[in-house]
Amino acid sequence: MSTQSSQTVYHYLDIGRLGRGEVVRLFLKDAGIEFSEVRYPYDENWPQVSKQLQEQGITRTGLVPALEYKGKILTQHIPTLRYLSRDLGRYDGETSWEKYIVDAVADVYIDWRSEWVSNFMQPSEKYKNESTAKYYDVVGKYYAETEGPYLLGDKVTYADFAIYQIMDNDRRTGTIVANLPESLVRFTDAFEKRENIAALIRETK
Ligand SMILES: N[C@@H](CCC(=O)N[C@@H](CS)C(=O)NCC(=O)O)C(=O)O
């Protein structure tokens, strides 16, 4: 999909710092990309608004986030981050193996995010007691494979934004595990100190 404008515009639901969109928003902030935001109330009018967005070509599926970026419209939040990473020439691994690790952790995140979305109104016992334990263990082990603080060591990649944000969302819905793996404590501490992220956290706390 194409757009005439070269301005970056972020389209998402008006649900604060929850959901898939915030992963893209954090990434844009970190990268220092200027953007404007269009937020849609997630209420009884949303199905109609979603249909209009489809008709306008802002989203193919009726779902958001959608990003107008350099004359194109990007949807599907993880492919959006991959596109931006390639465009910026940073936020990805360098070797084929590193890129694979980043993609693999992003894929675990996609499963985790789907389960989080199904559970965020009323978390099931299975999500609270089994799923989260599994995801924090699996992802914690990936992060423990380097000295950290990020997935690939000292270089931040697009998967770090997704993992930070799903942990943040679990904290907000009271579903974060009691004992975070040490590798993820180290990661969260470092991530929150990143210049543009720290400023964002201060603004929205
Ligand atoms: N595969 C899409 C999924 C997008 C998606 O499910 N977005 C949710 C918000 S996080 C949405 O638009 N929900 C509104 C609806 O279900 O109508 C992505 O990764 O961006």
TrEMBL record:
GO terms of molecular function: glutathione transferase activity
A family per Pfam: GST_N
Protein name: Glutathione S-transferase
InterPro entries, A to Z: Glutathione-S-Trfase_C-like, Glutathione-S-Trfase_C_sf, Glutathione_S-Trfase_N, GST_C, GST_superfamily, Thioredoxin-like_sf
Transmembrane segments: none
Source species: Aspergillus tubingensis (strain CBS 134.48)
CDD domains registered for this protein in UniProt: GST_N_Sigma_like (cd03039)
PANTHER family with a match to the protein in the record: GLUTATHIONE S-TRANSFERASE (PTHR11571:SF150)
GO biological process: glutathione metabolic process
Domain GST C-terminal: from-to ranges: 95-205
Domain of life, source organism: Eukaryota
Domain GST N-terminal: residue ranges: 8-92
Leader peptide range in chain numbering: none
